[in-house]
C-alpha cells in the first residue's frame, strides 16, 4: 500500500473537532463578547454619531457600517482564532503530538485554518443577525457576500496561523493584530467611504489591503463600492496566495516547528 | 505493507547528525539499530542528546543528515507509515489542560488515523487506572495521573514501538513499579520499547539491551546479559609492602594484574562462582612471601561502568 497517497481524514476531523469544541467551551469569549461589542458600535456609531450623518452613497449610515463591522470582527477573530490555536500547543508543548502524528502539512493547515475560519464565519453571521435588529438590511448579492465572507475568513485564518507559528511569546501573538490589523481595519473604510477622504489620503489608503475587503463586501450588500469589485476580489486572492506561499515555506523549512 | 518486516531491527538509525542553528552539535554521527520486540534503554547524562535522538525518530525535530527507518519505512519519504507505528511519551507533562481525559485520548487516536474504538480506549484507560477519571479535565489530575494520561495517549493508537522519554522522572515508587509492570506487559504483546533514563537501576531492571550516549555520541551498546557479567565481577586490590617487578609464574592461574609501579596487585573474579579463590590466593601469596599492607574489594556496577565510560570519553 502506498501510504503517501492515503490522506489522514480522521486526523483532520480530530483537530477540527477539538478546535470547534474549544469555541463552544469558551462561548462567552468566542461568541458573546463580539456580539456585545458589535451592539456597542451600533449604539455609538450607528445611533449617536450616525444620527448626524444622513446617508453615504444613498445608504443610511447605520446600514452603511454593517459590512465594515462584520469585516472588522471577521479579520480580528480569524487571526486570533488561528494564531491562538497553533500557538497554544507550541506554548504548552503538546505540539509534539501533532508533529509526531502521521499527518501531512496540508492536513494540519486544513484542520486548523478550517476550524478558525468556521468559527469566524459563524461569528460573522451572528453579527449580521444582530445588525438586522438595529437597521433594515438587504443583501443584493448574497452569493458574493458569502464568497467574500469565506474568502476573507480563510485568508486571515491562514495569516493568523502564520503569526501563531512565528510568535515566540504571547506579546508577539498580540503584536500584529494590535499594531497592524486593527489600525488597517479602522482606516480601511469600516465607518466611512474612502471617497470622503482628501485626494492624497485616498491614494495612501489604496495601499491598505483591508480597503478592498470592505469595499467588495459592502458591494455585495448594496451594489456600491469604493473600488471596483473585480479589484477587490483580485486583491483578496493575491493576499490569500501570499499567505499560502508563506505557509508552504514554513512547512518546507520546518521554521519554528521542527528546529 | 513493507517487505522488510522480517528484518530483526525495527528501527535503523544510520549516520544521523543534528546541528542546531546556534552551531551546537547535539548529535554526531549516530548509528543504532533497535531490535524488534526488545526493551532498549538509552542511558546518558542530561544534555547528552537522548531527547534530540528520540525527537528525530518521531519526526518532531529535523535531522541535519543521515537516515532513519521504522520497520523499513523511511521517516521522511514514508512518514505516514513510519509515524503511525510509533507512540511517544515525552519527558515533559504537556497536555491540553482543558480537555477531558476521554476526549484527549480519543483525539490522539484520531490524529494517528485510527477509527474510533471506544472499547479499546476504555481498556487502555482501565489498564492505567484512569477509567474513573475519564470525564475529568486534565488540569485537575495529579502529576502521576498526568504521566499515565500521556502514556494512554501514546497507546491509544496501538503503536508497535513505544518511546518513553524519562518515564519515571519525578514519579513515586509505587507508580514506578506499576509502570515497569506495564512496560513488560507491552513487551509481551510484541511492542518494542525504547526508554531513556538517567536512573541506572531502571535500565538494570527493565532493559534487554543498554545503549550509552554522551555528548551526542553512542559510546556503548550492549546486551544486559553481558552487562550482568560485568556487574557480577568483583575486584580485590592489594597494596603491596614492597613492589614486584613481575607476577610470579606460580600465580598464573589467577587473573592478576600488576600496577605499572609494581605496588598494587589487582585480582578480578566472579563473585557469583562457588569458589572465587580469594582465600586460596591470599594463602598462596603469604606462602610465597608476598606481603601486603592493605586490601580493598570493589564491585563493578553498571553505574561504575557508566561513570567510567563518561569519564574516558574525551
TrEMBL record, chain A:
It is found in: Cell inner membrane; Membrane. The keyword Transport applies. The keyword Cell inner membrane does not apply. InterPro entries: ABC-2_transport_permease (IPR052522), ABC2_TM (IPR013525), ABC2_TM_bact-type (IPR047817), ABC_2_transport (IPR000412). Coiled coil: none annotated. GO terms for molecular function: ABC-type transporter activity. It is a multi-pass membrane protein. Pfam families: ABC2_membrane (PF01061). Keywords: Cell membrane, Membrane, Transmembrane, Transmembrane helix, Transport. GO terms for cellular component: ATP-binding cassette (ABC) transporter complex. Residues 25-254 form the ABC transmembrane type-2 domain. The chain crosses the membrane at residues 27-49, 61-88, 143-167, 173-192, 204-221, 227-251. PANTHER family: INNER MEMBRANE TRANSPORT PERMEASE YADH-RELATED, TRANSPORT PERMEASE PROTEIN. Belongs to the ABC-2 integral membrane protein family. This is Transport permease protein. The lineage of its organism: Bacteria, Pseudomonadati, Pseudomonadota, Alphaproteobacteria, Hyphomicrobiales.
UniProtKB/TrEMBL annotation, chain B:
The keyword Nucleotide-binding applies. SUPFAM superfamilies: P-loop containing nucleoside triphosphate hydrolases. InterPro entries: AAA+_ATPase, ABC_transporter-like_ATP-bd, ABC_transporter-like_CS, ABC_transporter_ATP-binding, P-loop_NTPase. It comes from the Bacteria. The keyword Transport applies. Pfam families: ABC_tran. Residues 11-240 form the ABC transporter domain. Keywords: ATP-binding, Nucleotide-binding, Transport. GO terms for molecular function: ATP binding; ATP hydrolysis activity. PANTHER family: ABC TRANSPORTER ATP-BINDING PROTEIN (PTHR42711:SF10). Belongs to the ABC transporter superfamily. This is ABC transporter ATP-binding protein. It comes from Mesorhizobium neociceri.
Amino acid at each position: 500500500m502506498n501510504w503517501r497517497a492515503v490522506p489522514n481524514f480522521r486526523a483532520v476531523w480530530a483537530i477540527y473537532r477539538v478546535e470547534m469544541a474549544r469555541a463552544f467551551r469558551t462561548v462567552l469569549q468566542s461568541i458573546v463578547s463580539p456580539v456585545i461589542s458589535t451592539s456597542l458600535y451600533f449604539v455609538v456609531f450607528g445611533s449617536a454619531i450616525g444620527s448626524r450623518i444622513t446617508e453615504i452613497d444613498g445608504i443610511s449610515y447605520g446600514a452603511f457600517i454593517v459590512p465594515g463591522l462584520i469585516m472588522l470582527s471577521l479579520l480580528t477573530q480569524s487571526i486570533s482564532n488561528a494564531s491562538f490555536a497553533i500557538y497554544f500547543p507550541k506554548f504548552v508543548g503538546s505540539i509534539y503530538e501533532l508533529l509526531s502524528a502521521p499527518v501531512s502539512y496540508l492536513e494540519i493547515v486544513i484542520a486548523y485554518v478550517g476550524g478558525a475560519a468556521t468559527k469566524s464565519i459563524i461569528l460573522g453571521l451572528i453579527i449580521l443577525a444582530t445588525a438586522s435588529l438595529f437597521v433594515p438590511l438587504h443583501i443584493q448579492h448574497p452569493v458574493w457576500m458569502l464568497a467574500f465572507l469565506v474568502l476573507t475568513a480563510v485568508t486571515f485564518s491562514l495569516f493568523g496561523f502564520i503569526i501563531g507559528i512565528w510568535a515566540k511569546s504571547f506579546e508577539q501573538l498580540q503584536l500584529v493584530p494590535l499594531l497592524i490589523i486593527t489600525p488597517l481595519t479602522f482606516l480601511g473604510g469600516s465607518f466611512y467611504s474612502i471617497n470622503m477622504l482628501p485626494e492624497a489620503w485616498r491614494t495612501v489608503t489604496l495601499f491598505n489591503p483591508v480597503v478592498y475587503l470592505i469595499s467588495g463586501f459592502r458591494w455585495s450588500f448594496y451594489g456600491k463600492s469604493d473600488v471596483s469589485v473585480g479589484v477587490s476580489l483580485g486583491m483578496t486572492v493575491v493576499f490569500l496566495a501570499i499567505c499560502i506561499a508563506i505557509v508552504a515555506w514554513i512547512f518546507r523549512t520546518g521554521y519554528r516547528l521542527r528546529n | 505493507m513493507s517487505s522488510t518486516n522480517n528484518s530483526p531491527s525495527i528501527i535503523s538509525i544510520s549516520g544521523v547528525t543534528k546541528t542546531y542553528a546556534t552551531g551546537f552539535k547535539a548529535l554526531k554521527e549516530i548509528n543504532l539499530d533497535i531490535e524488534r520486540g526488545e526493551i532498549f534503554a538509552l542511558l546518558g547524562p542530561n544534555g547528552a542528546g537522548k531527547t534530540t535522538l528520540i525527537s528525530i525518530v518521531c519526526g518532531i525535530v529535523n535531522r541535519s543528515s543521515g537516515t532513519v527507518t521504522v520497520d523499513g519505512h523511511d521517516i521522511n519519504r514514508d512518514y505516514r507509515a513510519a509515524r503511525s507505528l510509533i507512540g511517544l511519551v515525552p519527558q515533559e507533562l504537556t497536555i491540553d489542560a482543558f480537555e477531558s481525559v476521554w476526549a484527549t485520548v480519543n483525539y490522539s487516536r484520531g490524529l494517528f488515523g485510527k477509527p474510533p474504538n471506544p472499547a479499546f480506549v476504555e481498556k487502555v484507560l482501565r489498564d492505567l487506572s484512569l477509567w474513573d477519571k475519564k470525564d475529568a479535565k486534565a488540569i485537575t489530575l495529579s502529576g502521576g495521573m498526568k504521566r499515565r494520561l500521556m502514556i494512554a495517549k501514546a497507546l491509544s493508537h496501538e503503536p508497535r514501538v513505544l518511546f518513553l522519554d524519562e518515564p519515571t522522572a519525578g514519579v513515586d515508587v509505587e507508580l514506578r513499579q506499576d509502570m515497569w509492570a506495564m512496560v513488560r506487559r507491552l513487551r509481551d504483546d510484541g511492542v518494542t520499547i525504547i526508554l531513556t533514563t538517567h536512573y541506572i537501576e531502571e535500565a538494570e531492571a527493565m532493559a534487554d539491551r543498554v545503549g550509552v550516549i554522551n555528548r551526542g555520541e553512542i559510546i556503548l551498546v550492549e546486551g544486559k546479559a553481558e552487562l550482568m557479567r560485568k556487574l557480577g565481577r568483583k575486584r580485590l586490590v592489594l597494596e603491596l609492602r614492597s613492589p614486584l617487578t613481575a607476577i610470579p609464574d606460580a600465580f598464573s592461574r589467577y587473573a592478576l594484574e600488576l600496577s605499572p609501579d609494581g605496588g598494587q596487585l589487582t585480582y578480578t573474579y566472579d563473585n557469583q562462582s562457588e569458589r572465587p579463590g580469594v582465600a586460596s590466593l591470599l594463602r598462596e601469596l603469604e606462602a610465597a612471601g608476598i606481603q601486603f599492607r592493605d586490601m580493598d574489594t570493589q564491585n563493578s556496577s553498571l553505574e561504575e561502568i557508566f561513570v567510567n565510560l563518561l569519564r574516558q570519553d574525551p
